[in-house]
Amino acid sequence: MAKKDGGELAPALIGFAAGFAAEYVTRKALTFAWTRATGEEPPTDIESPEVGLGRALGWAVVAGVGVEVARVLAVRTARKGLTRSGRDAIEA
Question: Three-state SS for 49?
Answer without folding.
Answer: coil
